[in-house]
Amino acid sequence: MSVTEEIKQRLDIVDLISEYVPLKKSGRTYKGLCPFHQEKTPSFVVFPDTQGWHCFGACATGGDIFTFIQKREGMDFTEAVRFLAQRAGIELVPGSEGGAQQAEVRSRLRSVMEAAASFFVAQLASPAGQLARDYLAKRGVGQAAIEEFRLGYAPNAWRALSTHLLADGFSREELTEAGVISEGEEGRFYDRFRNRLIFPISDSRGNVVGFGARSLDGSEPKYLNCPQTPLFDKGKLLYGLDRARDGIRQSGTAVIVEGYMDAIAAHQAGYRNVVASMGTALSEAQLQSLARLAKRFVLALDPDAAGSVATLRGVAVAGEALQTESAASFDGGLLRFERRLSAEIRVAVLPQGRDPDELIREDGAAWQRLIAEAKPVVDYYFDVALAEAELSDAKGKVRFARRLLPVIARVPDALERAHHVERLARLIQVDPSLVERELAAVRRNAASAPDRDGLDGLQGGRDDSGQGALPEAFGPEEYALWFLSQNGSALAAANEALASLGSEPLSEADFLDPANRALFEALAQFGSGGRLALRSALSGDLRRRFDWLESAGAGEPEASEDYVWHDGIYACFFLRSRRLKHEARLLQLAQEGEEDQAELRQYALAVDKTRRQMQVLTRALASRSLLKAKE
């Protein structure tokens, strides 16, 4: 039995979901308001018999306890397995002795960070913390926000924290690896943070993994962070995400600011969908963590052009160097992210000399307008380029066009590209056809350039946790995934074939196995970049599963490309047919015990629609089987 099956056996889905959604028994099912969209009439149904759930309203999707936790908590598949395994009392056995040791090290480091956070919190409330309390009062941070964000104070002493933690039983080596002490000469050591306001930095589940610290006496650096550790990777974390998760999901928008105080001020003022990049350039890993919660991002950037572009640099593909002919060089990295993450990214430029913290405290209405009126990425790139452009001579116009053409080339929609071509042509006063020719050359060069996406670790767990048992057989789900991963256009072709039958595009709901579901989500996001790009986007057990699929697919009997495509589309049709049959059964179960006549009529209509779709798919499956037999 796989660990996922064992977790399902130990945890009751009704009990689990009841912690998030008030449920009312209705016959053999339980009903409630869907937690994933706004509604007044309950359309969210939990099925104890099948240990599944389904939304028959706007979401039109469902799944099991893993998919529920993924959607509700903003976790990926591996994180959901770990979360639920812990609830079920199941120990995830790492795949090797080294893995077990690594898990123990991480557990000890988490204990170090929690103990350190508690120490800093206590120090802020002590007489020694008066300077830090005065600073917070000056910045308008109230007690509720201090407690919510667990703000603390590092005493002005060389070994206050280390003495405390060593007395608690932690070793000097553990404190060093956690990044809370620094090593000096001749074996000496001292606390990394001294006389500083402390900002605990948590992962998406609220576990403290690092610290940021602000100087209170004018010493440099003004802000100091933990070094990179097994727990803390500043380029993959967003400050406040654990507290902003619900606000982001409910609003459908994630607002990204730069500093700790900016995020705290926003939350204190009631803007609960704000996170901070902690002053670093944004990375795709950070945006990927937000993409599970919302599909609209707003970057609230400093008005200084060079500062803005420094932030945008990190939004270019990880590891891809930007041109450096000027401080404001940039390419269309944000647009690539929009396409890859199926997201809408906008940019809000703050008024000159104001940061989000000040603007929110002084004029909340202005902050709301700023976010609501945030500009699309390409418009922002135009503004940045125009701020430094010299359009009075030919060379200046050429430089301006050369900077914007790569950005326009990344716009996926042809009509939107045409709009920006017209705008660029007007600004440099040339015929749009000339800009079109230059743009075509840029697109050809981009298409022939090597893929340098570097997407390691953006999907799935960061290490093996032993829970990802490989499939026992190369069944329809596995064949469909293998087929879809072989060609970047396979998913689009499958969705087009389904659309011709009046059916929706493939989704994770078409897969029953939780790991296959997670793999499909990754494929839908990264598959268009090819197998290597997809594989590099996976880690841990999902990568092992992908490698297994590749190996198993290679072991299939040799067939022509036409046969492979024929069987691949057939497998996708089969998955959709199976899903429709399952949904029809769920609808029938939901009808049992329902007394509301209007609800019963709605269920009856839904059953009829589902059965009609099943009939169309059944005929298509039979037709494809007959076609192959004739061949």
Biggest sheet features: 5 strands, antiparallel
What is the strand arrangement across the widest sheet?
1-2-3-4-5
Q: What is the CATH topology classification name of the largest domain?
A: Dna Topoisomerase Vi A Subunit, Chain: A, domain 2
Structural class: alpha+beta
How many individual helices? 27
For the residues shown, what is the average pLDDT? 80
- The value of Rg in angstroms is 27 Å
Shape type: globular
DSSP strand content: 5-15%
Could you explain the architecture of this structure?
The protein is α+β, with helices and mostly antiparallel strands and 631 residues long. The protein has four domains: 3-88, Zinc finger, CHC2-typedomain (DNA Primase, Chain A), CATH 3.90.580; 107-232, DNA primase DNAg catalytic core, N-terminal domain (Alpha-Beta Complex); 237-452, Dna Topoisomerase Vi A Subunit, Chain: A, domain 2 (3-Layer(aba) Sandwich), CATH 3.40.1360; 476-630, no CATH class. A five-stranded antiparallel β-sheet has the order 1-2-3-4-5, sandwiched between helices. It has a five-stranded mixed β-sheet with strand order 13-12-14-15-16. A four-stranded antiparallel β-sheet has the order 6-9-10-11, covered by helices on one side. α19 packs across α20, α21 runs parallel beside α23 and α21 (476-486) crosses α25 (540-554). It is globular, with a radius of gyration of 27 Å.
Label this structure with key terms.
single chain, 631 residues, DNA Primase, Chain A, Dna Topoisomerase Vi A Subunit, Chain: A, domain 2, 16 strands, disordered C terminus
